[in-house]
Write a structure and sequence with these properties.
Layout: E1 6-10, H1 17-29, E2 34-39, H2 41-46, H3 55-69, E3 76-81, H4 86-90, E4 96-99, H5 107-116, E5 123-126, H6 140-144
């Protein structure tokens, strides 16, 4: 049986339980290692109107979450992501991509780009949303707006 190299990417700022679920899902399936793409400050600012923590702070939070959630002893590396699908469309050795229900529809386009580059398509692993206590999904935007905390508790 071959090992699976898994990628997951995001802004991860501020980090919340939904992100922790994405990372834990990647750890669960990534017996061949993980590549975690964290958006650069410039890329994060270009796609958001809200403030985003600095890249170094987001990487530190992701690394802490990986260390806390890794019960399998996986190998992982965090990289700066400067374009939407940069790592997964540029590296042939990625086997699977962990996505949220919101981003799952992007898998077809990602696999088209991989095929065009001569790579095998990636499998999609959909990590379910983590819901706040009000039944709505936890998001960094909701946290930034002061609606909820990182665990989905109403403020």
């Amino acid at each position: 049986m071959t090992e699976t190299r898994v990628a997951v990417a995001g802004t991860f700022g501020p980090l919340h339980d939904g992100h922790r679920n994405l990372l834990r899902t990647a750890l669960r399936y990534g017996d061949g290692g993980l590549v975690i793409g964290v958006t650069s400050d410039e890329f994060a600012r270009s796609s958001r109107s809200r403030a985003v923590p600095a890249f170094g702070d987001r990487v530190a939070a992701v690394e802490a979450a990986l260390e806390a959630g890794d019960e399998w002893g996986r190998e992982w590396e965090v990289r700066e992501l400067t374009s939407e699908h940069g790592i997964v469309t540029e590296e042939a050795d990625i086997d699977a991509l962990v996505v949220s229900p919101e981003t799952a529809a992007q898998l077809a386009g990602i696999n088209d780009q991989r095929r065009a580059a001569g790579f095998e398509p990636v499998d999609g692993i959909v990590a379910p949303y983590v819901l706040a206590e009000d039944g709505e999904r936890i998001s960094s935007t909701r946290i930034a707006h002061g609606e909820i905390d990182q665990h989905g508790n109403l403020r």
